[in-house]
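Tokens for chain A. Residues wanted.
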């Protein structure tokens, strides 16, 4: 017992020392420029005005041609830089759709609908109840009207009505919030993984708002919960070649036609996890919009692991043994997501992490790979790179895994866990409910960096980094879906 206590004290002492070594390293690297400039400044301070004048005259008399050549070269390089650099992309505003209270669905209501459908065996009903109890959901998530009817109205027409309701509800609020005219929108990207009608969802938006004839419109389907960030990345790429444009991005998912009515356990999980929601986001590349925008898009990183069969098959739509269509979730889903995350942050890390963290990671890698040292791989501290984390609320197990792998705090995970509790897994739009939570809590300050990260079928992991251009004024956030109940959060989730 005493030996164990001594070991614990020794480990605690080593951890304490390592923490301060890490802080010292971070300080030295981050202040390296100042440490370099200090002796130079002291040296220059000993030079008199006459010394500077003598040096300048000597330069003009002897190197006039060289000076002119350098000035011309500098002008050319600066001009080339400004002409070739990517256009800045700003997020003017975004809106998360909040359904009518009549569409709230508690666990009890859900189980009642399961039973009344007559589609499930006793074993399947018990399994779905267990999933709901462990999901991390609250009692006020939303589902489509068709799923609350008795019997359920799982028709194509109801699915179209559901899509129109959530898409147009979000877009109407966004246009009113920003004051942007429909005719000024030059790019439209709509994503929905499971519901893809003809005419397309983007065509439905064009028709409803009478958007202009030369609009660049896209409907992304089958790309899973990460499709929202893929839409942002696509809009960013289009804004690089379309000057002075607005891009409207709409992320949604339909529940009506994706209700699984079989008894395959791997397919029953999706019945329990997904809920109704949507988000509309307005982007701009107009420099004049910077002053009224909320965020600037800094990075977008996409990772696709589809070349690996295990990753490709872990989220798979197929027929079960009775020819009933559903989406099967593999037991390997969490580990596959972890591998995709590692690949994604390997690309993102050098772009966002301070140099001290990169050096510590490199030292750890060299020690393990070259010197064969038996040490753990150093996990960079992403809390030094970001103030806010918006991790796709795909499920409790995924959030637990990311919290552990990235060594995040309860405060960091709060937006994701509370979104999962209050709205459930709204697929690709969940990230925006999380960012809205950060805003409603008054957390977003000017200069803050927010990291959105999502996972989707294929298998994909995508990241987007935003920088806040202003401190969010809560008085102007009346349409935020959290505002009328934000004081009730966070809550303890069993």
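Reply:
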């Amino acid at each position: 017992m005493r030996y164990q206590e001594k070991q614990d004290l020794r480990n605690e002492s080593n951890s304490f020392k390592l923490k301060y070594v890490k802080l010292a390293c971070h300080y030295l690297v981050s202040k390296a420029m100042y440490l370099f400039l200090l002796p130079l400044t002291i040296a220059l301070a000993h030079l008199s005005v006459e010394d500077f004048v003598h040096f300048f005259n000597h330069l003009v008399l002897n190197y006039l041609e060289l000076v002119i050549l350098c000035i011309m070269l500098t002008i050319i390089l600066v001009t080339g830089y400004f002409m070739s650099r990517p256009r800045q992309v700003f997020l003017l505003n975004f809106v998360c759709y909040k359904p009518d209270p009549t569409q709230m669905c508690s666990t009890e209501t859900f189980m009642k609908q399961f039973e009344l459908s007559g589609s499930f065996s006793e074993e399947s009903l018990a399994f779905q109840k267990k999933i709901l109890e462990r999901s991390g959901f609250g009692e006020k998530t939303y589902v489509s009207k068709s799923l609350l009817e008795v019997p359920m109205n799982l028709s194509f027409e109801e699915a179209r009505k559901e899509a129109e309701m959530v898409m147009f509800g979000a877009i109407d609020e966004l246009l009113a919030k920003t004051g942007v005219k429909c005719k000024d929108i030059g790019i439209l990207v709509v994503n929905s993984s499971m519901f893809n009608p003809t005419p397309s969802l983007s065509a439905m938006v064009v028709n409803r708002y009478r958007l202009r004839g030369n609009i660049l419109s896209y409907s992304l389907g089958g790309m899973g919960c990460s499709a929202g960030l893929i839409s942002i990345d696509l809009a960013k790429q289009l804004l690089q070649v379309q000057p002075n444009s607005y891009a409207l991005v709409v992320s949604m998912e339909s529940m009506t036609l994706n209700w699984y009515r079989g008894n395959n356990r791997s397919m029953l999980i999706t019945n329990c996890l997904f809920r109704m929601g949507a988000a509309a986001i307005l982007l701009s590349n107009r420099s004049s919009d910077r002053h009224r925008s909320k965020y600037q898009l800094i990075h977008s990183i996409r990772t696709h692991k589809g070349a690996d069969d295990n990753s490709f098959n872990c989220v798979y739509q197929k027929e079960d043994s009775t020819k009933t269509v559903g989406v099967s979730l593999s037991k390997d889903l969490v580990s596959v997501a972890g591998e995709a995350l590692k690949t994604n942050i390997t690309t993102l890390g050098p772009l966002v992490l301070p140099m001290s963290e990169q050096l510590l990671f490199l030292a750890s890698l060299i020690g393990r790979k070259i010197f064969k040292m038996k040490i753990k791989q150093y996990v960079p501290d992403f809390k030094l790179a970001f103030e806010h984390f918006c991790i796709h609320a795909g499920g409790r197990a995924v959030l637990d895994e990311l919290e552990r792998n990235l060594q995040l705090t309860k405060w960091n995970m709060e937006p994701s866990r509370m979104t999962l509790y209050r709205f459930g897994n709204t697929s690709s739009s969940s990230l925006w409910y999380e960012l809205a939570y950060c805003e409603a809590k008054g957390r977003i300050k000017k200069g803050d960096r927010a990291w959105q990260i999502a996972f989707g079928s294929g298998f994909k992991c995508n990241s987007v980094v935003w920088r806040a251009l202003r401190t969010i004024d809560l008085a102007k956030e009346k349409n935020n879906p959290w505002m009328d109940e934000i004081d009730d959060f966070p809550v303890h989730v069993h």
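DSSP finds 16 helices and eleven strands in the chain. The CA atoms of residues 279 and 479 lie 12 Å apart.
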